[in-house]
Design goal:
mainly alpha, 77% helix
């Protein structure tokens, strides 16, 4: 399977964000799924890159919305509240939405991992059943071989006794 792997720096440059920004989104990728190249540098596969791109785009879209929402309301007073109260509530709502989105994405990844692990368990069960069947066949062949060896030994003894009898007659 040929994958186009990118380092954190390459992906950060492509997205126009810092490496820390990419690392922030990598927190929701399970550590065991991250790979390193021959130089020991973490590389991201296509699926991981797409995940981080979606997260980075949603962050910029959300931050863009919050800026316009705040700037749009900062000129007026809404029902007697100051513009700082409005912007504070908008920022909190945006952060909650980001966190919910992040947790939903993380749950989706966990669900995918669970499905993958269930499939692995089925594969291992099939392998175990196949090994048990092979073991039964091997035991059957071994039993047949032992019976044939015993028959050969009996026939050999019969032939020896017949040869002894034949030699005893002149």
């Amino acid at each position: 399977m040929s994958e186009e792997l990118k380092t954190i720096k390459e992906l950060a440059d492509e997205l126009g964000v810092s490496k820390q920004g990419v690392r922030y989104h990598m927190k929701s990728i399970p550590q065991e799924e991250l790979k390193k190249n021959n130089k020991g540098i973490v590389v991201l596969n296509i699926e991981q890159q797409n995940f981080i791109k979606r997260k980075a785009k949603s962050d910029t879209a959300v931050s863009g919305k919050s800026d316009t929402a705040v700037s749009g309301k900062s000129d007026t007073v809404v029902s007697g509240k100051s513009d700082t109260a409005v912007s504070g509530k908008s920022d909190t709502a945006v952060r909650y939405k980001q966190e919910i989105s992040f947790l939903e994405e993380k749950n989706l990844l966990k669900d995918n991992q669970i499905d993958y692990l269930k499939q692995q368990i089925k594969n291992y069960e099939n392998q175990a059943n196949n090994l048990i069947e092979v073991q039964k066949q091997t035991q059957n062949l071994l039993d047949q071989q032992q019976r044939l060896a015993l028959q050969d030994k009996k026939l050999l003894e019969e032939y020896k006794s017949e040869m002894v009898l034949l030699r005893s007659f002149p």
